[in-house]
Recover the amino acids of this structure.
């Protein structure tokens, strides 16, 4: 063995260097430090000394027995109860004992080694024996249970076989009996020969012969032409009954019974459990109770409800009808159809894996959200927006050096508050874009509120730092007031200074987003039915309904049947955000799908369904529920506002027919325009849809005398002809600001004008004169404004109005004048009022019309 140093030997033995040096000094080995080498002889000497110190005698040479211990540790990944993988440390310990063979007799070597091994592994052997005993007990119990099950199955099989044998014997006996009774008729032409054959059979006695002869005689035709079967049928047939003989494939007679059906009228009334959904037709209800629909209609007439066979009745009415007919109703709880669908989808879930984050870009108008996203994607999204304003949500995914990130770009205009709230509900991280020169604005505060309400972490991107007026510290101070604290100030929010124009800080922003995503530990199940959210939908003239969806879980494939909100369909085509066809999309991937039967609302959840029948069932259920809720809301509104409308008089209505390019813009515009309604003028969206303006839309606008508005859509030739012929105004818009402003102005013209009183002059009564022509005439001094003869007046005494009327005369000395200015004296005659006293004030006022605004 090569020489080693003291330090190496100490590491091999497992003691410290100082302890090893002490032991070497005790063994007589001096002058060794940590770097000194130790020879083979010195190691042997040290070993002998250690043996003697532990009480071992023997020679100072080689050892007689040595025990080696070894411990290894490894890691094993197993699936936990929650489905996530966890790491388990596994420790394996081994121990072996070696004995010098020269010290043991050859025939005793094996026995001694085995004895030592048994001593060393005694504990392990006991554990093994316990495990074997436990396994044997389990195997014994399993064998006993299996034997009991086999015995029970055998007993049941024997009982069943016995019953079958008895039934077979009984059937054969009846068959023989029927053959015997039918045989004479078959042998009627040669009855004697048949009797001879029967008499030739073994065991056929004379009594039986005589009896057989008597029976055979009975079967012969009587004088009236009728046989014995017409009088009496020993097999139980009625007089004149018809026999039905049923034979098997070989021609053997297996039945000889009368031609009667096997149904029996129930002796007791049957009570069935009838499951009743929220709405059901009369025909379906009758089918569930196994009766004719006419009986259900008859019962409903008796209850005072007139119905037809195809009429849809609600759950409460159906429950009353079922109870009236003596059955037990079982009302299905709300959304039972949808819950059953969701349970079937949940049962197909697989193993979760990490996924890319979904990031929503929020901020105020013109703070650079889309420009920031443009730089990241290296495309020009903003060039397609009108006025630089994003009109609807766009979804894109980009590959970065550190992984994939999916972006949702939301509009910043106030009308899109609902759209931004929906965007925050489907996202994992929010990038709040704040311009460094503008600071926090109203939509910035709304974005913070949406993010906090959804519990989504915020990453603040301070944009436009390349401008001279940029002040990032101001942004931090203003956001701190909204409880968005930077990390350097001890908060939880990352602030990154960026410039969408120069690209400064973009990489740092992506790193901050991916770091936040790593903290969130985002997971999804790729091997599951595709589920997610509808981001946007529109009606394309060439392709039909097109929906932009974001897959949140599972994998969506071309050809899948999808249920989205109130609509369903099979995916005919699937495109990515660049317009390229794809066959499948995994978690956190936005795609554009075609094949739905309509345009679902932005924000509706979609899921893949196994078959089209189930998808249609759920879609029709949702449509019926939506229709019922809408009608109930309208009816409730009519009833509640009936007396209020009668008292308030006619409320003026401003009708609008609205068509937009995408569903999200339609929703936002509808809410924004309806919010303009007042107590006097109500905005009524007669019809709202997605796609171009067709002739039917124009006819609807004519019927309702409505304003036709097209947002990023145009009218076809037929629609334009109808609108021009009927004089209906058609307006095109591409920015929401303009629609809201124009509708406000149009509504202002429908408002009733307001009248405002304006005081134009005040005169104080200094003396009162009597005139035979005018009665009491007040000598006044004009102390304020100008007094006009043609305007109305009020007489005030101690600042209290005691009379309101008109001037009868206004004179300056003896001349009648039309007006008297401030600081001049005049005589005023008040019409039909003679109780003017000194000190009163005569207030002259004018009523002016003020145009109202919204």
């Amino acid at each position: 063995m090569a020489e080693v140093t003291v330090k190496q030997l100490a590491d091999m033995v497992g003691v410290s260097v100082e302890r090893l040096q002490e032991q070497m000094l005790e063994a007589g080995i001096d002058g060794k430090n940590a770097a000194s080498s130790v020879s083979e002889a010195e190691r042997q000497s040290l070993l002998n000394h250690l043996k003697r110190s532990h009480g071992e005698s023997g020679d100072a040479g080689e050892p007689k027995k040595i025990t080696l211990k070894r411990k290894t540790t490894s890691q094993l990944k197993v699936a936990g109860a929650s489905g996530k993988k966890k790491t388990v440390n596994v420790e394996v310990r081994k121990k072996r004992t070696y004995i010098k063979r020269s010290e043991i007799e050859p025939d005793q070597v094996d026995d001694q080694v085995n004895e030592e091994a048994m001593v060393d592994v005694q504990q392990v052997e006991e554990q093994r024996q316990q495990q074997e005993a436990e396994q044997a007990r389990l195997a014994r119990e399993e064998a006993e249970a299996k034997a009991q099950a086999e015995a029970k199955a055998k007993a049941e099989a024997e009982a069943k076989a016995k019953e079958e044998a008895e039934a077979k014997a009984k059937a054969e006996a009846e068959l023989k009996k029927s053959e015997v009774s039918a045989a004479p008729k078959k042998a009627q032409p040669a009855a004697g020969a048949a009797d001879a054959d029967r008499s030739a059979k073994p065991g056929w006695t004379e009594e039986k012969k005589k009896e057989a002869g008597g029976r055979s005689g009975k079967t012969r035709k009587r004088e009236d032409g009728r046989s014995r079967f017409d009088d009496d049928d020993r097999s139980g047939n009625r007089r004149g009954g018809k026999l039905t003989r049923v034979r098997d494939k070989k021609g053997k007679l297996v039945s000889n019974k009368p031609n009667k059906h096997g149904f029996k009228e129930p002796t007791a009334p049957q009570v069935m459990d009838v499951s009743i959904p929220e709405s059901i037709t009369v025909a379906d209800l009758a089918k569930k109770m196994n009766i004719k629909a006419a009986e259900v209609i008859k019962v409903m007439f008796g209850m005072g409800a007139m119905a037809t066979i195809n009429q849809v009745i609600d759950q409460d009415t159906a429950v009353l009808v079922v109870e009236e007919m003596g059955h037990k109703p079982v009302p299905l709880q709300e959304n039972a159809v949808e819950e059953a669908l969701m349970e079937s989808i949940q049962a197909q879930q697989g193993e979760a894996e990490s996924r890319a984050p979904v990031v929503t870009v929020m901020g105020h108008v013109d703070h650079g959200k889309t420009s920031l996203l443009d730089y990241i994607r290296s495309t020009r999204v903003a060039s397609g927006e009108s006025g630089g304003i994003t009109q609807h949500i766009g979804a894109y995914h980009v590959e970065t050096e550190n992984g994939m990130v999916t972006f949702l770009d939301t509009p910043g205009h106030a009308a899109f508050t609902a759209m931004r709230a929906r965007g925050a509900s489907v996202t994992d991280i929010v990038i709040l874009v704040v311009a460094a020169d503008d600071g926090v604005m109203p939509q910035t505060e709304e974005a913070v509120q949406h993010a906090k309400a959804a519990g989504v972490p915020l990453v603040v991107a301070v944009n436009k730092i390349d401008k001279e007026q940029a002040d990032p510290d101001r942004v931090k101070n203003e956001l701190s007031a909204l409880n968005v604290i930077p990390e350097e100030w001890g908060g939880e929010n990352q602030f990154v200074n960026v410039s969408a124009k120069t690209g400064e800080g973009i990489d740092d922003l992506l790193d901050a987003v991916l770091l936040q995503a790593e903290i969130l530990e985002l997971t999804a199940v790729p091997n599951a039915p595709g589920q997610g959210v509808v981001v946007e939908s529109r009606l394309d003239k060439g392709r039909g309904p097109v929906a932009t969806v974001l897959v949140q879980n599972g994998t969506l494939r071309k050809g899948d049947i999808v249920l989205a909100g109130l609509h369903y369909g099979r995916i005919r085509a699937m495109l990515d955000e660049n317009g390229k066809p794809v066959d499948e999309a995994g978690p956190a991937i936005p795609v554009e799908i075609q094949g739905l039967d309509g345009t679902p609302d932005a924000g509706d959840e979609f899921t893949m369904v196994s078959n089209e029948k189930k998808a249609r069932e759920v879609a029709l259920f949702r449509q019926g529920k939506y229709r019922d809720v809408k009608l109930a809301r309208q009816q409730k509104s009519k009833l509640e506002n009936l007396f209020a409308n009668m008292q308030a008089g006619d409320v003026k209505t401003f009708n609008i027919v609205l068509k937009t390019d995408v569903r999200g813009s339609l929703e936002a515009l509808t809410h924004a325009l309806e919010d303009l309604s007042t107590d006097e003028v109500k905005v009524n969206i007669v019809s709202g849809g997605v796609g171009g303006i067709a002739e039917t839309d124009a006819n609807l606008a004519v019927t309702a005398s409505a304003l036709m508005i097209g947002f990023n859509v145009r009218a076809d030739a037929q629609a334009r002809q109808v609108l021009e012929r009927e004089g209906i105004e058609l307006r095109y818009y591409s920015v929401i600001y303009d629609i809201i402003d124009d509708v406000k102005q149009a509504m202002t013209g429908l408002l009733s004008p307001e009248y405002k009183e304006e005081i134009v002059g005040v005169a104080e009564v200094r003396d009162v004169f009597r005139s035979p022509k005018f009665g009491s005439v007040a000598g006044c001094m004009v102390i304020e404004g100008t007094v006009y003869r043609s305007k109305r007046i009020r007489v005030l005494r101690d600042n209290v109005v005691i009379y309101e009327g008109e001037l009868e005369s206004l004179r300056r000395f003896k001349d009648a004048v039309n007006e008297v200015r401030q600081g001049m004296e005049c005589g005023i005659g008040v019409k039909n009022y003679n109780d003017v006293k000194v000190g009163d004030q005569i207030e002259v006022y004018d009523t002016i019309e003020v145009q109202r605004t919204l």
Notes: The radius of gyration is 51 Å. The mean pLDDT is 76.
